[in-house]
Amino acid sequence: MFGINKKSLLLPPIVALVIAFIFSLVLIPSAKQTPKQLPLAIVNEDQGAIGKTMVETIEKTSQATTGDSKPVVKWIAVSTTEEAIAGMNNQKYYGALVLPKDFSEKQASLKTASPSQPEIVIYVNQGKNALAANTVTQMLNGMVDGMNKTVSQQLLAGLKQQGATLTADQAALLASPILKTVNPVNQTGKLANAPASLFQPLWMASLVAAAIMWMNVRKTEASTKKKSLNHKGIQILAGAVAALVTGFGLTWFAEGILGFDFPSFSDTAIFLSIASFSFFSIIRAVLEWLGFAALPVFALVLFFGGPLLAMAPEIMPAFYKDWIYGWLPMRFMVDGLRELFFFGKGLSWSQPTAVLVWIAIGSIAVFALSVFKPKAKAAADKPVAVSAE
After folding, report:
1. 114, 255, 269 from 155: Cα distances, Å
2. How far does CA 303 lie from the centroid of its chain?
3. Which terminus of the chain is more solvent-facing, meaning fewer CB atoms within 10 Å of its CB: N or C?
4. What torsion do the CA atoms of 78, 312, 56, 161 make, to the nearest 10 degrees?
């Protein structure tokens, strides 16, 4: 029609739809956060009946469910405050709610002429996940605010029934009869978003290094498998050097130029070097087997991985948690950085470090096995017939 190719008319809307679909998948996790079974510790150090009733009320009222009938909060009963804090230090809980020993006694005193304000202590584990910490803070604050409203109404109703008048002390506590104390643990400070933020430059640097190496050597062929294996070993050593440069360079830039205050420069730089080498190894191995087709996949990993790495698994939509997050090797980099930055753990053979090392070892093995990959046969040159005429 009008001399225009039909394909040129059909292609733009199809491409636009595909791009919209891809970017929607990237943005949905951040736009639609659905907390499910957030593990929170609850400590009832109070031996009175009021404290027991309060805990039962908290557990009951917080059992709001999501679309798949899973509760938002997964309460875990813990005996002492010290045990709850130890659990948060080991990243078992996102927070804790504590009723002190004298809670029932002080709660009962609110009806007397000399009331004492009962206290509920909230702990928020900031280091485990910054976004989840904000969710937990709002949630627990809302719970205590709801308790305050209920206790205030009950107090007024009881005094009215008795025909008693409010004392000055009772009137002062009426608006907020329960004292709420919020204590952050494993505080993140200015590094709250650093673990996830460092992923993108590290991943891109590893991707570019692996891609450049692949493009430079893909047309060269060794005469024997032994020589081919030697060539691959040299590439791995070059990748290790590139990873060290990337890890130390990124740490220096983030600390010296961007003003990040890392607990330990050397621990951070070495860990980032390990992560970079792990990423380089897996990218280089896949490129060796799949070629150019692998590059768009790694680009998509960057787009999909970025938003997810900043989120806690318990607040992701089910699809992303079950089918995408579990397959992202870079989540171990983020977990390892959290341990270094927020939990006072120096560089060690922790789970994140071990997994990154094993990913690198497995990728190197896959890369080495490519020496047995069948080579594409070059098309034979056809003889050209020359006419005698």
Report:
1. 14, 55, 58
2. 15
3. C
4. 130
Say which residue the tokens 């989120």 belong to.
311
Helix, strand or coil, per DSSP, at residue 65: strand
Instruction: Give the tens place of pLDDT for each residue, 273-296.
Output: 999 999 999 999 999 999 988 888
Contacts of 146 (CB under 8 A, 6+ apart): 61
Return d(Cα 168, Cα 107) in angstroms, integer.
17
- Mean pLDDT of the 244-269 span: 95
Contact of 236 with 364, CB cutoff 8 Å: yes
pTM of the model: 0.85
147: left (phi over 0), alpha (psi -120 to 50) or beta: alpha
Q: Length of the chain in residues, anyone?
A: 389
Closest CA to 332 of 147, 218, 203: 203
SS3 state at 186: coil
Angstrom distances, CA of residue 115 to CA of 155, 172, 356 = 12, 10, 57
CA 65 to chain centre: 23
- What percent of the chain shows pLDDT beyond 90? 52
Name the CATH code of domain 38-187 (choices 2.40.30.110, 3.40.50.800, 3.40.1710.10, 3.40.50.2300): 3.40.1710.10
Q: Where are the domains of the chain?
A: 38-187, 194-372
CB neighbour list of residue 95: distance below 8 Å, 6 or more residues apart: 40, 41, 88, 122, 123, 124, 125, 133, 136, 137, 140
Cβ pair 314, 73 in contact under 8 A: no
